[in-house]
């Protein structure tokens, strides 16, 4: 029998759906907001740039990116979370600086070298094929484009930096970061890398 904890992990956070997904979405919008905003700040997004956000969930980081970028595209496999992003970013969607599309890390639906910045918060551990997701990230980023990843440190399987290098990225830096609202969020493992120019 599937336990409540397993259901919460999958339907609440992993691929949010139904009532547990709504609860998970609300918790993530609160608990992960500082981490999402930090990654957007670290990305140094210019107002001419296109940003791809993998697994934006409730859309806090997508909204922050859409306020800075020419265009921020959220690629999200959960229908519930796509609707949540569209609600949170309604003004930016209307303005044309945010777009929400169905897809996942391995299948973003974006053109080759069409993106300046790609970021992922708390979903790299959910990708069924991490190598394929990194190959896709490399494909859609333009030469010189930046990759930023953050994940709950305790949930991240090892070897991410090596996998990022193996996908062709350079200038790979990784560190840990304690979110200021750490009553609700846990230590984050973060990484920055560049597609070679
Ligand atoms: C734990 S939530 C994190 C949401 C948000 N980034 C945050 O930190 O609050 C994981 C999100 O990644 C999405 N997701 C699941 N599998 C994915 C995949 N293979 N590629 C991209 N996103 C995925 C889920 O639908 C969900 O919205």
Q: What is shown here, in short?
A:
With 197 residues, the protein is α/β, with parallel strands linked by helices. Helix content is 40%, strand content 24%.
Number of β-strand runs: 7
Biggest sheet strand order reads: 3-2-1-4-5-7-6
Low-confidence stretches: none
| CA gyration radius, whole angstroms | 16 Å
Main sheet specs: 7 strands, mixed
How much of the sequence lies in strands comes to: 15-25%
Q: Give the helix/strand class.
A: alpha/beta
Encode the helix/strand succession as letters: HHHEHEHHEEHEHEE
What's the overall geometry? Answer: globular
Small-molecule binders: S-adenosylmethionine
End-to-end separation in angstroms reads 51 Å
Helix content: 40-55%
Structure description:
- The chain is an alpha/beta fold and 197 residues long.
- Helices cover 40% and strands 24% of the residues.
- The chain is built from 8 helices and 7 strands; from the N terminus they run αααβαβααββαβαββ.
- The protein has helices spanning 4-14, 18-31, 33-43, 60-68, 79-88, 90-95, 130-140, 160-166, and strands spanning 50-54, 71-75, 98-101, 115-121, 141-152, 170-177, 188-194.
- Strands 3-2-1-4-5-7-6 form a 7-stranded mixed beta sheet, sandwiched between helices.
- Helix 1 crosses helix 2 and helix 3 (33-43) packs parallel to helix 4 (60-68).
- The longest helix has 14 residues, at 18-31.
- The radius of gyration is 16 Å and the shape is globular.
- The N and C termini lie far apart (51 Å).
- The mean pLDDT is 95.
- It binds S-adenosylmethionine.
- S-adenosylmethionine binds at residues 13-16, 28, 32, 36, 54-57, 76-78, 81, 104-105, 121-123, 126-127.
């Amino acid at each position: 029998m599937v336990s409540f904890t397993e259901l919460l992990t999958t339907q609440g956070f992993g691929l949010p759906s139904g009532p547990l997904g709504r609860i998970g979405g609300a918790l993530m919008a609160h608990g992960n907001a500082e981490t999402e905003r930090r990654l957007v700040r670290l990305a140094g997004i210019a107002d001419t740039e296109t940003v791809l956000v993998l697994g934006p969930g409730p859309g806090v980081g997508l909204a922050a990116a859409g306020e800075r970028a020419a265009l921020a595209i959220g690629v999200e496999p959960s229908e519930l979370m796509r609707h949540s992003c569209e609600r949170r970013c309604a003004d930016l969607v209307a303005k044309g600086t945010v777009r929400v599309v169905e897809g996942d890390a391995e299948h973003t639906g974006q053109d080759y070298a069409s993106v300046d910045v790609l970021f992922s918060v708390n979903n790299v551990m959910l990708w069924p094929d991490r190598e394929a997701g990194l190959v896709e990230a490399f494909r859609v980023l333009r030469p010189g484009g930046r990759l930023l990843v953050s994940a709950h440190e305790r949930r991240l399987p090892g070897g991410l930096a090596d996998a990022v290098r193996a996908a062709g990225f350079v200038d790979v830096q990784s560190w840990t970061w304690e979110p200021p609202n750490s009553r609700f969020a846990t230590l984050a493992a973060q990484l920055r890398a560049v597609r070679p120019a």
